[in-house]
Amino acid sequence: MFKKLLAILSLVAFFMTSLKAAEKPNFVIVLADDVSWSSFGCVEAGLLTRTPNIDKLAYQGMRFTNLSCSAAMCGPARQELYTGLLPPTSGIYGNGNKPKGDFKNLVSYLSDLDYNVGLTGKTHFTTSTEFPEIPGFTHGANDSAPTWELNGVKSFIEKSQAETKPFCVVVASVHAHHPWTIGDA
């Protein structure tokens, strides 16, 4: 068992070294509250769901099909995704909790690799290394009429490409979340 762990750690170290030397991939992370794995057309259970743009991204990129979080709440799930830490380590057991310490997150790790990193939409937790905010989705999730404006994300990607820098953009949708005050009741 210990030999397997050492082999895996060596492989991860090799990959991270290779990543620094090789062309770095761009990341587009689409994150939405109150949707499930079957809410998209690109999965077998989503046959009756029409999500052509998300499906196109899924088929052209890499999909993580076995990802889970330890808590089915906004704050802990986001903290876990962005830091890699479980609630007992981070101190984020529920929405509104503050972290136990100042932990590195996706912004710090990718910035160290010379990435442009940004987020549009909902953050739902705070650390000393904040996501640079990109115009696009309404900030937070408690807007009575959430809006979407494509130009902010598009400008962020174009700026990164002009600088020949890899990018990571988190598109944190607020549309499926409460309050459900718009659309057909």
Main attributes of the structure:
185 residues, alpha/beta, 3-stranded parallel beta sheet, 6 helices, 34% helix, globular
Describe the structure.
With 185 residues, this protein is of the alpha/beta class. It has a domain at 24-69 and 107-173. 34% of the residues lie in helices and 10% in strands. It has helices spanning 2-21, 52-60, 74-83, 87-90, 106-112, 151-162; strands at 27-32, 116-121, 167-173. The chain has a three-stranded parallel sheet, with helices on both faces. Residues 1-15 and 17-21 have low confidence and may be disordered.
SSE blueprint:
Blueprint: H1 2-21, E1 27-32, H2 52-60, H3 74-83, H4 87-90, H5 106-112, E2 116-121, H6 151-162, E3 167-173
Parallel strand pairs: 1-3, 2-3
End-to-end separation: 54 Å
Number of contiguous helices: 6
Beta fraction of the residues?
5-15%
Shape: globular
Radius of gyration using CA atoms only: 18 Å
* Biggest sheet strand line-up: 1-3-2
Given as residue ranges, the uncertain stretches (5+ residues, pLDDT < 50) are 1-15, 17-21
Instruction: Compute the number of strand runs.
Output: 3
Largest sheet: 3 strands, parallel
- Helical coverage, percent range: 25-40%
Mean pLDDT: 76
SSE sequence, one letter per element: HEHHHHEHE
Quickly give the structural class.
Answer: alpha/beta
